[in-house]
Specification:
Helices cover about 40% and strands about 10% of the residues. With about 180 residues, the protein is mostly helical. It has a two-stranded antiparallel sheet.
């Protein structure tokens, strides 16, 4: 847990593994998801007719092109009627539940919205967040209150001793990983 105590996102051991394997190994893979037994799944909440919402504000790196990738996801999946905030809610709920490496863990029809693959020129969130200076863009979403995303993000930070890591960076990693798993 050297990464958690020093505030770095990737430990030296993880970066040497990444260089050796060609895959981006990350300290993010070692963090524990908070328990979610009393929280409804995002897929179930979004099926409700009326949803109370809460603000979720994050600043994500411009290089990850997250707003464009989410919009592309909506168009390619044929779910244009959904607001971006609902896709963000599904992505963060998925990440905070343990981030399975396959959409199979999601409830239908969400597990069927597979895209053509993440563009090669989009760097991984972990790589971008390790840069010293990052150009960011603010994103504000009204996510379903019932999912308790702000509370769960705070619990994630506490459980994993990430007090020096902004919640926006956790949101960034969650969104980027979900979009990659979904093929966008």
């Amino acid at each position: 847990m050297g990464a958690a105590s020093s505030g770095e996102l990737v430990s030296p051991a993880a970066s040497s593994v990444a260089a050796a394997s060609g895959d981006t190994a990350s300290a993010w893979d070692g963090y524990t998801a908070p328990p979610a037994q009393n929280v409804a799944r995002a897929e179930e909440v979004l099926n409700q007719r009326y949803i109370d919402r809460e603000s979720l504000n994050a600043s994500v790196p411009v290089d990850l092109d997250i707003p464009h990738r989410i919009e592309f996801f909506k168009v390619m999946s044929g779910i244009n009627q959904l607001p971006q905030a609902d896709l963000v809610a599904v992505a963060l709920d998925w990440f905070l539940r343990g981030a399975e490496s396959s959409p199979d863990a999601m409830l239908p029809p969400w597990n069927s919205y597979i895209g053509p693959g993440t563009p090669q020129d989009v760097p991984r969130a972990e790589e971008v967040l390790n840069q010293r200076f990052i150009k960011r863009e603010g994103l504000k979403w009204q996510t379903p209150e019932e999912l308790k995303l702000n509370q769960r993000l705070a619990m994630y930070r506490v459980m994993n001793r990430l007090s020096r890591v902004p919640a926006a960076d956790i949101v960034t990693v969650g969104l980027d990983r979900w979009l990659r798993v979904m093929g966008f």
